[in-house]
Fold Lipoprotein.
Amino acid sequence: MPAQSLPRLARSALLVAVGLCACDTHAPATAKAAVPTANPNTAAKPAEPVDDSPAAARTIKLDLQAVATRRGPIALYRLGDGEVVLAGGVMLARAGADGNMTQETDWLNGLHLAEPGADWGVHALGGRDDDLWLTVARGGEDPAHRVYRRRENTWAAHEPDPDAPGAYYQDYATWPEGHAIALRSDGAGKAALVVLDDDGARPARPQLEVAGLQSPPRPTRLAGLTSGELFASVAAASAGAEGLPGLQTGMLRWGPSDTKGIFAPLPGLESRAPKQVATLVESGGQVLIGDGVEIDDEVVPYVAGFDGTSWRLLDPPPARGAVVSLVETPEPALLAVVDEDGPADSLWRIHAGGDWDVWERVELPPVQVPASWFWDPQAGAWASEPAPVAGLVPSPRAIGRDAAGSLWLSARLLLADGTASPHHAVLRSNPAAGSLALYDDGQVHAAQQDLLPRRSPRAGDPTCPQVYVHLYTVSGDSPEVGTPELRTALSGPLGSLLLGEVRSQGERQVGLLLAAGDYEAHKTAIAGMAGKLRYRSRATCGHPPLLRGWRAGG
């Protein structure tokens, strides 16, 4: 259930904003002056070129501050109680009581190991804080889905349909009374609606059957309203030109007590409707949808809303690309993320209070990324990256709003030359004391391994390619990794070893992270150094997540 909400579209349709000027001009056009007769004996001047292109849209600035950064994508999800949750890979991060973001490795308990490079990530998330449902997915050449339910502080695997191997929940909505309703797919194109309540999963009353359609509709997204109404974006077979079957995009709507839904085709933009619906959002009893339609070989943004009676098309933002995320703010105003060609996407705002409002391009503040250590899957080792000198430019990917009214935005960060960087960030209108560095995929995998029972390394054990030597637990903040005495001792033969500050077993620790072969070669020297400094060293298989690192050799 993506973290998005919807506006109440209590106004008439927006007029086409030719020129997309920032102000409204209703004054009548002035009378044209009489054109003087040309003197045939006077040489005619070349005509000035006429620029009939529309004026550039007004640009505004939005005061958002970074609350989280990550080397890798970050997704936004909104729970049934209105809380926004971040997802990086298969790890979740949430706002604490003080407003700062936190990530706890305990939230990985019960999930299968997500190895770096396997592209495991959160696909959908729904439910309440005390009863969460999670779908994780793996892309690539061997796609797969897994479903989990979180109860009593751990995830338990859930089988959506034992009779249909590969079935999964592809979307969640809150409906009714705070419970979740899920869109179940059997992996072969068949879908059903399932209510997820305190007792688990059961068939939902609304059915995916519509009279007059040649085949059952294929839903992709859900939105449940507090009134008990339910909406689903669908593609349905219908009679096309000359009686031939066609594919029609529309919305299914169920009333609070309906079993069968009512199908409504989407309004067309220049007689064209989107082939799918990328975003479906709800708020205050209203719904908004967004995507794109192809017109003259270009994709034009598409935004439509349901006002309680019918679907109404809004004039699109002056950009090229598909709308991938929508949100409403209290002004009232709409914010839309447009997925444009190239790495730079755009954010647009329109006030929803009058007929003459126009879309404005939103400029976002740069984000400063700190120096970091990350897992390099190609090298199979931890690598460091210095902090960029200048802030990186956010390229928006998703936007949403929580129950408290804070605006959230997830963005990819671009370098100064406009090219994509590996970094992503989440910005929020409610600032935090500091920006949280979310785990990358390698750190997530390390955190999952760290939750497994500890075991000592044995020479030649192929299941133990990495070794962590715990030296001491960190009791306070330090500007450097390790004590001066320890850093001095790590010289000479041990100068190539990586000294790290890690998060292990719920504690901040300092220890050595090295390959099993290096551990065997330096085991005696490491034990001697630890004994001389009075550390109770302990070697275990696996690397916990590395927060900071240091090598004597640089």
In short: The two ends are 45 Å apart (CA to CA). The chain has three helices and 37 strands.
